[in-house]
Amino acid sequence: MTGHQHLRPGGDTGGRTADRAPGDGPAARRAPRPRRPRRAVRALLGVLTGAAALAGCAERGLLGGPPTPEEAIRIVPGDGARGVRANGRLEVRVPAGRLERVEVNRTGGSGRQPVAGRISRDGTIWRPLSASLELASRYTVDAVAVDDTGRRTTRHTAFNTFAPPHRVIGLYSPESGTTVGTGLIFSLVFNRPITDRAAVERAVTVGARPAVEIAAHWFGHRRLDFRPRNRWRPGTRLTVHLRLREVRTGPGAYGIQLKTLQYQVGRDQVSTVDAARHTLTVRRDGKVVATLPVTAGNTANPTYNGTMVILERHAVTRMDGDTVGFGAEYDIPDVPHAMRLTRSGTFLHGNYWAPRAVFGGLNTSHGCVGLPDVRGGGPDTPAGWLYRNSIVGDTVEVRNSPDRTVAPDNGLGGWNMPWAAWRAGSALH
Q: Rounded to an integer, what is the distance from CA 264 to the centroid of its chain?
């Protein structure tokens, strides 16, 4: 499944054009959202047990069979639900078998935080420890269930809770206290358009120790990013002050956040993908620590060039081509070791379904970068090693792909923008 994947509203993945976060900017808004593939995507990988296999992020028909993930794992609220109230029910249930793992996270005014919960003794129900939901937040649910035959099913969903009228909140990730990579760009995505951008920018400050110049840049009216001229030095301590409470953001709208966030920058790690050589080279503090075989985007769906940043990590997730215009090209419910690079859907991830000869030799995906793995995710596979040795904020550079450079507002692609142009995006200049 290497492809320009993405998590469907709640995390399922597919092609390049989906899952734009609110406020990702003009480039994201211009991206088409076709219901059918824009380009020919069928490329022959080879013959598997006498049958031709489609190259790319997945081959429909190699997996699957009843019950569907939606039938095997019942999640309330439903995937994509909006306006869920604070007293709304949050529950994960299996009608047969047992829940093996449930992970729920909330992104809201306090950043991205795990939601504590408990699986029942019989393994059939997960419920949160708190009876109420936080308003103006986005919840994601990752669940793994196993049936009586040992077959595992994975499901990923998301829903949004009700946002009180005229209350403005800036959503951010990761949560305060996280150790991050040297490529992190602090990004705030607001739940409502900001009319007075200068007032909001004055109310948000990002500082660093050791000190370095940090500049703000607006992408549209809902997204505000901060970065230095060059990537952070290892060991830097970042402090973010959100003094948005009672700040007028527009007619009748006011901010509500008043908090301080702390981040620690860890070691410097850069993973360089050479799409022409089909390799991924990992450099830590300037020294090569690994060179891994990969398969990147095929001729019809090449991988973006340029500098990207790991946004989030999933031990396992679902990738579905139908959510991004690839129709039934692929739908894999258990993609292992997936690390998101762009909002439009580019991932680094494990691939257990393609022949091993593909890795290091051919580009066969829909745009993602795939590494050898086993079903369920092996800790000692190339994909497992990279996943264990990567953190949010690590830098990934793609070279020698025939595609264009990733847009600055696609994920944390701001490193692809010249410093002068970045500084010009501040509302205070």
A: 21
What are the residue ranges of helices labelled H in 55-115? 69-72
Predicted confidence at residue 63, as pLDDT, reads 44
Q: CA nearest 347: which of 388, 316, 376?
A: 316
Residues of the chain with pLDDT under 50: 1-64
Give one DSSP letter per residue of 210-257, joined into a string.
S---EEEEEETTTEEEEEESSPPPTT-EEEEEEE-TT-EEETTEEE--
Q: What does the DSSP assignment read for 252-301?
A: TEEE--EEEEEEEE---EEEEEETTTTEEEEEETTEEEEEEE-B-B-SSS
Q: For position 218, what pLDDT does the model report? A: 98
Q: Are 4 and 323 in contact (CB under 8 A)?
A: no
- Comparing CA positions, the residue from 107, 156, 74 lying closest to residue 333 is 156
- Two tokens, residue 237: 């301590």
422 burial type by CB count under 10 A (0-12 exposed, 13-18 middle, 19+ buried): buried
Is the CB of residue 313 less than 8 Å from the CB of residue 390?
Answer: yes
Q: What is the pLDDT of residue 404?
A: 96
Q: Tell which residue, 421, 425, 330, has the closest CA to residue 368.
A: 330
The answer to whether the beta carbons of residues 44 and 55 sit under 8 Å apart is yes
DSSP string, 70-86: HHHSEEESPTT--SB-T
Of 34, 23, 303, the C-alpha closest to 189 is: 23
Q: What is the pLDDT of residue 112?
A: 78
Q: What is the pLDDT of residue 429?
A: 80
Nearest to 40 by CA among 377, 397, 325: 325
Residue 136: what pLDDT? 83
For residues 321, 324, 328, 331, the Cα torsion angle rounded to the nearest 10 degrees is 20
- Antiparallel, parallel or unpaired: β 258-265 and 179-180: parallel
186 vs 30: CA distance, rounded Å = 23
- Asked if 37 and 327 count as a contact pair (C-beta separation under 8 A), the reply is yes
Distance CA 375, CA 49 (A): 18
C-alpha 139/C-alpha 114 separation (Å) is: 10
Query: How many whole angstroms separate alpha carbon 425 and alpha carbon 428?
Result: 9
Q: Report the C-alpha gap between 116 and 108 in whole angstroms.
A: 16
Q: Report how far residue 139's alpha carbon sits from residue 89's, in angstroms, rounded to the nearest whole number.
A: 12
* Bridge partner residues of 142 (DSSP): 103, 156
pLDDT value of position 357: 95
